[in-house]
Design a protein that fits this description.
single chain; 120 residues; alpha+beta; four-stranded antiparallel beta sheet; 15% helix; 40% strand; elongated
Length: 120
């Protein structure tokens, strides 16, 4: 048996659609421990808000989050994550960033690309 290219494409789209629905909120934090598949939260979450934009392409999705000039000031932002819930809940994606010393003269865009690769 072989799974057709059409079905692989449909499966990929279905997975990406699920990411699009689930990842409604972006968060930033201040802990830079390595990201692990077993993570359930950010190490030191300081801000969570609704995502700004989602772009869904053929094999990946890009979720964009924005920290404006009035948010998270005085923090050394070192991590980001995506969540379904507006508070609490389990992190769906976590990444460790380079340190951004956030001040009111800085705005921060965090783009998270999630790629889905399905093979035979």
């Amino acid at each position: 048996m072989v799974v057709t290219s059409y079905q692989i494409g449909e499966s990929r789209t279905s997975i990406l659609d699920k990411f699009n629905v689930d990842m409604q909120y972006g968060a930033v934090g201040t802990v830079n421990t390595p990201a692990l598949s077993s993570d359930t939260s950010l190490g030191g979450e300081i801000l969570r808000k609704a995502r700004q934009e989602v772009v869904q392409l053929t094999d990946n999705i890009v979720v964009s989050n924005f920290v404006n000039s009035q948010e998270a000031n005085g923090s050394a932002i070192t991590e980001s994550g995506l969540f379904f819930e507006a508070s609490n809940g389990t992190v769906r994606q976590r990444a460790v960033l380079g340190t951004v010393n956030k001040t009111s003269d800085k705005e921060l865009w965090i783009d998270t690309r999630i790629k889905v690769n399905i093979t035979q």
